[in-house]
């Protein structure tokens, strides 16, 4: 599994939002931006839109345009469904294992 694998990115975003929720702090969208995650904007938009469409995160507005989706992040947070997905999905477990190994490459995890 690579650092830019979709499941690693999903896990990283969900974990960050969950940690913010548990700590009672507002998430900083810049900490899970495409740039912060080291991926291109189109890939990031697809991942965040998918997380929102599946109900794993809220506070994200997905605007569908002919030229492609646009994501607006407004007060993001993880949902209980997102936490359960992060903790119970086998691919999320593989992503967790990868993140543990690569923790120095993703400083906010």
Automatic annotation (TrEMBL):
Coiled-coil region(s): none
Database matches in Gene3D superfamilies: Winged helix-like DNA-binding domain superfamily/Winged helix DNA-binding domain
Pfam families: YjcQ (PF09639)
InterPro entries linked to this entry: Phage_Tuc2009_YjcQ (IPR018597), WH-like_DNA-bd_sf (IPR036388), WH_DNA-bd_sf (IPR036390)
Name listed for the protein in its UniProt record: YjcQ protein
Species whose genome carries this gene: Collinsella tanakaei YIT 12063
């Amino acid at each position: 599994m690579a650092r830019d694998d979709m499941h690693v990115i999903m896990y990283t975003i969900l974990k960050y939002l969950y940690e913010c929720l548990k700590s009672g702090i507002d998430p900083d969208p810049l900490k899970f931006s495409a740039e912060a995650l080291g991926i291109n904007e189109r890939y990031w938009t697809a991942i965040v839109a998918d997380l929102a469409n599946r109900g794993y995160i809220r506070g994200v507005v997905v605007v569908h345009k002919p030229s492609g989706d646009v994501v607006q992040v407004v007060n993001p947070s993880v949902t209980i469904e997102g936490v359960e997905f992060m903790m119970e999905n086998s691919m999320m477990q593989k992503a967790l294992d990868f993140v543990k190994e690569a923790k120095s490459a993703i400083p906010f995890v």
